[in-house]
Every structure is written in C-alpha cells, then in structure tokens.
Amino acid sequence: MIELERLTKNYGDTRAVANVTLQIPDGQVTVLIGPSGCGKTTLLRLINRLVRPSSGRILINGKDNSDFKPEELRRGIGYAIQGVGLFPHWTVYENIATVPKLLGWDRQRIRQRVMELLDLIGLDATEFSDRYPAELSGGQAQRVGVARALAADPPVLLMDEPFGAVDPLTRIRLQNQFLNIQDEVKKTVIFVTHDLEEAIRLADCLAIMNAGEIVQYNTPEEVLAQPKNKFVHDFVGTDRALKRLTRFMVKDYLKQGLTVKESDIGRLDTNDERFYWVIDSLDRFRGWVDLSMVPPGGDASGEIVKPGSDIVLTGDDTMRQALSIMLGQGVRSLPVVDKNGKFVGEVTLADIEKATADGKITAA
Ligand SMILES: Nc1ncnc2c1ncn2[C@@H]1O[C@H](COP(=O)(O)OP(=O)(O)OP(=O)(O)O)[C@@H](O)[C@H]1O
Questions:
Q1: Taking every annotated instance into account, which residue ranges of this chain make up the domain ABC transporter (predicted)?
Q2: pLDDT tens string 111-150
C-alpha cells in the first residue's frame, strides 16, 4: 500500500500539491484526474522521488520513500510518461532492457524478460526487437514505453498520460490492452490523465484533484452517482449516465442473436418478421436481413444489407461506443465479431438501457 500523509509541495508561491492524504490500495488502478495545473504530475513525481516534498511524507508498504536507495525505487516503481520518452538511438530491445541492465541482471535473464514483455504487449520479437523508436507507430511506441516501465517487474507503476499522444482509436485499443495486461499482472497503478472517459474506463479508484487538493476519492461509480460538491459535479458533466456506459464492455452484454448462412437466405420463411444476422460458410459476419422489409411469401435473397466495417463491434468495445454507433447509424442492434471476423453475437439498444439501469443513476 502507498500512503500519502499530509503531502505538500510548493514552488515559490505556487502550491502544486496541498496537504494531500491518500491511501492507494495494492493491485488496483488509481486514476488522478483534474484540470490542467491541479498538481497531478507533481503528485506522481513525489511518489518516485523525482520531486521532494515541502512537507508530509510517502510510505510505501510502511517505509518512508526517502529511506529507499535509488536502485530500490527504480526496481520498485516503473514510470511511463506521455510521448513515451524512449531513447531514440536505442533499439526497442535496448529500450526495454534499460532498467534490468542498470540493475545488473545477466544477459540471459534480460533477454528472457524482454521477450516476455514483447509478447505481453503484442509485438512480434523478430520484427520489432531491432527497430528504432522512429520506426514505430505512435501506438507501438506507447506500448514499448509501458513494457519498459514493466521491465524489472515493479509492483508499482506510475503512468503519466501514457496514451496522450495517439489518435482516439489507437487510444481505445491501448486502453483495452492495458486492462488486459493489468488483469494478468495486477500492479499497483497510479495513472494520470485529463481525459474523463479514460479515467472512468480504467479506474478502480478515481481521485479528482483541484488546486493541489484531492476533492473526491472513490470508485468511478460512486463519483458519478454522488459528486461530492459543485466542482466535481461540473467536472464530471451532465451526461453522467452516459459516461458510466464507458465502464461496461460489449462482451458482458453479448447475446446470441439469430443467424442465417448466406447460402440459406432464399429458404427463409418470409411470413415471419424476424431479423437475421447473415454469416458466411466460415461464420464470418456478412450483413443482415430484416424480414419485416420483405413482402410475405417473397424471396429474401436480394435483401441482404452489407454495412461498412465501422458498425461492427468486438467484445472489448464499450457500451458507450455501441451507443454512439447505434445513434450515428440509426440502428437498434449491432453485430459483434471476434478477432478473426467471426460472428459471435449481438448487442441491442435494450441491452444499453439495461446497462444504464445497472448503473442505478439517471441521466442528470
Ligand atoms: N518545476 C516547477 N517549477 C515551478 N512550478 C511548477 C513546477 N512544476 C509544476 N509547477 C506548477 O505546479 C502546479 C502543478 O503542476 P502539475 O504539472 O503537477 O499539474 P498537472 O495537473 O499535472 O497539469 P497538466 O494536466 O497541465 O499536466 C502548476 O501550477 C505548475 O505550474
């Protein structure tokens, strides 16, 4: 557990962190969020002693962080920052190996760890080990940054806007991947962001900061349901019920749906008004056919609708994304596929209503 006790940091007249007392639980993701300049980065840097406090202290498993030797802090606390901070003249391999090398690990152990991490972040070792940062996409570079922070297997990981510099789609992918990795490694993560959706999505505990202070510290559900004061209320915004959908994954609301093979559409009984997802012989999603649009007794073969790939969901998408697509496309259900494009089920507007009701809050 990390305990912050009446922690204050002043820069001249600026009080960057003001008398913060906070207990950060092990194995969970605590997200710090608040307006620009509220002290998030300073708070993070106080924890790994890149910044010294003006007063107060930080206990890591009961020990004052000023009593740790530098290499103990390096081993115990990983740090990933926005824009990644990879060394440009070092390869991916060398970048990930930085801290293990500093810690004096032998070559064999370093090699094994780098391979493990490349596998964990989903980059092929043969293809990526020898590349330089300039030869990576933004998302790949961010992942290497996370791998580097995890290299010495630190129990604590500090992440400062780690997904800040990538496009929104890549950002969501990185968030998904982060959640999957965290599921496996269960680190104590302290994550700084100014993106509320990202915070709601990733946080087990959410700390809302303003002017150096922690204004509210609770689960995202509680913060959204019961903003403590006007500042938090305004900060989380008026569409709290919708924001909460960000916490729900499509895979948890997936239903089977009715399917028909493309080759069998002509045999459907068009006297009923059912809606079918159309799949090919390998169960890949092809489109849909809505029998309520086909005259009774008619042939449905020509009625298949083949939409663009932007309406297809995967289990790792959020119900908030599902809702945006439904509203944008004017449809009440969406197909869900696995990573090979195989149809695995559907989510419907009714499921979204259910998810909103699960949140036990109404739209404000
Ligand atoms: N090294 C420094 N010297 C002087 N003032 C500083 C220093 N670092 C931070 N500050 C000030 O402390 C306050 C908190 O800064 P900090 O970077 O912690 O905020 P933040 O919440 O991370 O902001 P942002 O979201 O914009 O990154 C700001 O007013 C900032 O100008």
A1: 2-236
A2: 999 998 898 888 899 999 999 999 998 788 888 988 888 8
Q: Look-up: residue for tokens 């709290």?
A: 240
* Ligand 1 atom 16: residue of nearest CA: 39
What is the rounded CA–CA span in Å between residue 254 and residue 252? 6
The answer to whether position 245 is within a domain reads no
**pTM of the predicted structure, to 2 decimals:** 0.76
Q: Are residues 208 and 305 in the same domain?
A: no
Structure tokens at 113: 């760890």
37 CB neighbour count, 10 Å cutoff: 12
Both 87 and 175 in a single domain? yes
Whether residues 135 and 69 fall in one domain? yes
Q: What is the pLDDT of residues 315-346, one digit of tens each?
A: 988 888 898 888 877 788 999 999 889 999 99
Same domain, residue pair 209 and 303 = no
What's the CA gap between 336 and 343, in Å, rounded? 6
Print the domain residue range for 48.
Answer: 2-237
**Phi/psi of residue 82, each to 5°?**
-60, 145
Residues in the chain: 364
End-to-end CA distance of the chain: 35
Q: How far away, in angstroms, is 37 Cα from ligand 1 center?
A: 5
